[in-house]
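Re: weekly structure request thread

Next one in the queue (212 aa):
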Amino acid sequence: MSELSNKNPELILASASPRRRELLQQIGVACRVKPVDIAEVHQPGESPAMFVERLAREKACAGLAVADSDAVVLGADTVVVCHGDILGKPTDREDAISMLQQLSGSEHQVMTAVAVTNKERIRCLVVTTDVRFKTLTTAQCEQYWETGEPCDKAGAYGIQGLGAVFVAAIKGSYSAVVGLPLTETANLLAAFDIPVWQTLVLTAEDDDTSAS
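Done, posted below.
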């Protein structure tokens, strides 16, 4: 393996999501995983876009607080919005089935915010993708829950996994639905001298691969 160039700052991924790490690996971006813990509470009067952007910023800033002085930190968050309602991760079986039934036969939006920061500045963007589900039966929703996949997913489904069979159409960034809009993320990282197409990916010894 090659070593990271001394010209490029280290990138910290302030997220425990294995999907975000895999997406960065896909475009050859080297990173070190340092999950952060923030309160993901929606504030009164906060739009879904404002909410997801704030969470991405808070994750990036929390990661920066414990990072080396010359590091660049990436924080991200994803929410599913259906008929104006923000659908987070399901709390239990009933919650997941309720979410899936709400998504059934309709179009919803997946909003992913990405924030990149260092000691001098922060840049953030939100990418929205339209996703349309086919009509689901209650039995399909229940069977999908039993697979275990919906447990840690916003909106109770994973487009990159078994939940792909529910997706009838998509308009926008597929990778944003998975967890990171790659074109936009690459542009943000380039502004912080983080190149794509690296060959080495660093992971922390305490790497936690649960979803954020």
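The CA atoms of residues 108 and 122 lie 29 Å apart. The first strand starts at residue 11 and ends at 13.
Next request, please.
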